[in-house]
Amino acid sequence: MAQAKTVLITGATRGIGKGIAIGFADAGWIVYGTGRASTTLSDANTLSWATDRKIILKQADVTDQAAMAAIMQEIKETHGRLDCLINNAGIAANTPASSLDANETSRIIDTNFRAVFTCCQSYYKMQRKSGGCIINVASVLGLVGTSLASVYSGTKGAVISLTKALAIEWANSGFRVNAICPGFIDTDMTDMIKKRESLMQKMLEFIPLKRLGTPADIAAPAIMLASDGASYITGQTLVVDGGLTAQ
Ligand code: NAI
Question: Residue 201 maps to which CATH number?
Answer without folding.
Answer: 3.40.50.720
